[in-house]
Specification:
2 domains; seven-stranded mixed beta sheet; alpha+beta; three-stranded antiparallel beta sheet; Fructose-1,6-Bisphosphatase, Chain A, domain 1; D-Maltodextrin-Binding Protein, domain 2; single chain
Amino acid sequence: MPDKPAADASPHLDDDAIAALMEPLTDIVVQAGAAILAVDRHRMLVEGKADGSPVTEADLAADRIIMDGLAALAPQIPTLSEERLHDATPPYHGLFFLIDPLDGTKEFVGGREEYTVNVALVANGVPILGVVGAPALGRIWRGHVGRGAERLMVTKDGSARTAEPIHTRATPRRGSPWIVAVSRSHGDPRSEKFIEARPGAIRQMLGSAVKFGRVAEGGADIYPRLAPTCEWDVAAGHAVVVAAGGAVTDGHGAPLRYGGARKGFSMPEFIAWGDPTAPASF
């Protein structure tokens, strides 16, 4: 008899099989977004997690839809959700899904529209496919590394979608201002110092992973976050930016790794670059 595979053996998919996941993953993100939109923000219960961040019934509703959808779509691939850390068994190797059911909960609670649903497929520590949905904005950014990226305009019920290819843009010419995507809710001194080193930089104040979308579609040159965050906040946007022609590195231009090697799946810092050659001159 052949040897029984190890219980922790990682699944393997070729590039075509990974590409085939894009449409059903987009469907799952649309469904999760619809569940978030259905929540009455004036009456919902808001609770605090152990780290002090808020969680709402919208986060949990989106989490259930995504987890059920992934279990039906690809049961062989492990899944890590921000809302299910108690089930996590790090470190993760090979393929795994990394999700943030509602990125930008503070924006959502505050009544703003810049919140997202983030789903990434990570392979050997590197995001290779990402879907970032902004349900209140009617937009989805998605990308498969090596196969390009798209922006979709989506009706709120998901019944109609129009897609167009997107690409990052080159570093601004000397004398031209950098457009920098910055967080509305999470400013930090190191990121500000980094931005100030680019004279005349124009700040775009945005919430959640929408900032990755702006870099991926060429609407911003860079998105620095030189302060701690978590892997699920970054992975889907990372894949989209790289698929669109950009790069995502740490604060020194080195690659990022995902899978829980750091406690709590922390991500100490990152920079999303529209121009992949920019980190070399950083």
